[in-house]
Design a protein that fits this description.
This protein has 98 residues and is mostly helical. It has a single domain, classed as MFS general substrate transporter like domains (Growth Hormone, Chain: A, Up-down Bundle). It has four helices and no strands. α1 packs across α2. It is elongated and about 60 Å long. The N and C termini lie close together (10 Å).
Length: 98
Amino acid sequence: MIPAIIRKELLRPMPCANATERNKQIEMELAAIIGFTSAIAACGAFFIPKSYGMSIAMTGGVKPAFWGFRIFCSSCIGTSNPAKGCLQRALQQAAASV
């Protein structure tokens, strides 16, 4: 999904570039974005089990960890909501191009 969205988004700022230049720039941007996204996912794969373990060690259950996840997810939704329209357009355009 990320490559489809980025390809669409990066065509706009480079209308005068030839196809070779655009593809080269798109591939460089994609490599950086996918690398950054993978790093964030790796952190999640570490912190989620760590949160469960800490919650069980401190309280004997996982309920506090779930509350922490709920608060975190709510804050993510709250901060990304202003960009919701732009994201939905990008997703619709990517789905239409497939």
